[in-house]
């Protein structure tokens, strides 16, 4: 944000919000895109390993499910953001690092 303020030469005494500066530069905040990209990178690292994290993330743990509405899984959020139809398609794509990086770079951000 500071670089937009610097480009527009907004003094620190001016009472402009960050949203006003973004409107002047005609850009949007990309915080959610940054978060989703980092989540996707993390999921890619976990899926390439065989460990406890992989078991938990894919939901292959034994035991009873808790009562009530199930929480949204990290995989569901990443697949909706990347635009893939099924979780299994995204999981099979993690083994090829180059294609996974391309998917992350070209993700449209459809999900919330």
Helix count?
7
What composes the largest sheet?
Answer: none
Our estimate of the beta-strand percent is: under 5%
- The level of helicity is 55-70%
Number of strands: 0
Radius of gyration: 19 Å
What low-confidence regions span 5 or more consecutive residues with pLDDT below 50? none
Distance between termini? Answer: 22 Å
- What is the chain-wise order of helices and strands? HHHHHHH
Mean pLDDT: 77
Shape designation: elongated
Name the structural class. mainly alpha
Keywords: Endonuclease, Hydrolase, Nuclease
GO molecular function: endonuclease activity
Protein name: Endonuclease-reverse transcriptase
Organism: Elysia marginata
Defining key terms:
112 residues; 0% strand; mainly alpha; 57% helix; elongated
Provide the fold topology:
Blueprint: H1 2-8, H2 18-25, H3 31-47, H4 52-58, H5 74-82, H6 87-93, H7 97-105
Structure description:
It is a single chain. With 112 residues, this protein is mostly helical. 57% of the residues lie in helices and 0% in strands. It contains seven helices and no strands. It has helices at 2-8, 18-25, 31-47, 52-58, 74-82, 87-93, 97-105. Helix 3 crosses helix 5 and helix 3 packs antiparallel against helix 7. The chain starts with a helix and ends in a 7-residue tail after the last helix.
């Amino acid at each position: 944000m500071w670089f937009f303020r610097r480009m527009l030469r907004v003094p620190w005494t001016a009472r402009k919000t960050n949203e006003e500066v973004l409107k002047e530069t005609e850009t949007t905040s990309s915080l959610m895109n940054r978060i989703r990209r980092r989540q996707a990178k993390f999921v890619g690292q976990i899926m390439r390993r065989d460990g406890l994290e992989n078991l938990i993330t894919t939901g292959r743990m034994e035991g009873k499910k808790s009562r009530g509405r199930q929480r949204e899984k990290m995989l569901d959020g990443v697949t909706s953001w990347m635009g893939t139809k099924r979780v299994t398609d995204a999981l099979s794509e993690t083994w090829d690092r180059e294609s996974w990086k391309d998917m992350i770079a070209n993700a449209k951000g459809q999900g919330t």
